[in-house]
Amino acid sequence: MRVNDAVDEAKKPVSFVEKLAGSEAFSALFREGMALVEDAAAYLDGQGRDEAKALGRAEALAYAAESMRLTTRLMQVASWLLLQRAVNQGEMTRAQAASDRHRVKLSQQELASSPDVFAALPQRLRDLSVNSVRLQARILHLDTLIYCPMPKAASPAAANPIEQQIQMLRSAFVARR
């Protein structure tokens, strides 16, 4: 690397999002997400199955629908987390992760259609569902920050209307000389 390249590299702003994606905060998010996936799977295959058998017909149908939403939500979350971990570990580039071939299509999923229906579900399923929606919202926010960055201003002057006016005045007085 040439000295000028090193200086240019040093002048580039540090990407907060890139640092966050590779940080201990991401590792904690990864562990939290995977733990939630494991908790949900254990519940749905064990205690949840028993609780569903004790429900009435309408509640059992609501249970089935909510457990499918929960499973779908958590599979999207787990896929996204695993993809980001692959990028962080250098197994793929951020551009490859953003490509249509690899990109995880996240979609915001709500809880059951009715608060009354949701309230009739077993408490553990409700807790898992609420926690998964919260986690999904955080991941959707991170995904937007990483893959849909805000457009950059052309220059500091373009972002500051006062600076624009000062530049116009300077230009006018320099042109008169």
How would you describe the overall organization of this protein?
This protein has 177 residues and is mainly alpha-helical. The chain has one domain (3-150): Helicase, Ruva Protein, domain 3. The protein is elongated, with a radius of gyration of 24 Å. Helix 3 runs antiparallel to helix 5 (57-88), helix 3 (24-45) packs antiparallel against helix 8 and helix 5 (57-88) packs parallel to helix 8 (123-147). The protein starts with a helix and ends with a helix. The chain contains ten helices and no strands. It has helices at residues 3-11, 16-21, 24-45, 47-53, 57-88, 94-98, 115-119, 123-147, 156-159, 161-176.
CATH fold-level assignment: Helicase, Ruva Protein, domain 3
Q: Indicate how many domains the architecture comprises.
A: 1
Name the shape in a single word.
elongated
What's the architecture in CATH terms? Orthogonal Bundle
The H-level CATH homologous superfamily, spelled out, is Protein of unknown function DUF1465
Task: Write down how many β-strands occur, each being a DSSP E stretch of 2 or more residues.
Answer: 0
Classification by helices and strands: mainly alpha
Q: Which class in CATH terms?
A: Mainly Alpha
In whole angstroms, how far apart are the ends?
44 Å
Mean pLDDT: 82
Give me the number of helical elements.
Answer: 10
Q: H/E series, N to C?
A: HHHHHHHHHH
Strand content: under 5%
Q: Largest sheet, if any?
A: none
Poorly predicted ranges: none
Radius of gyration, Cα only, in angstroms?
A: 24 Å
Helix content: over 70%
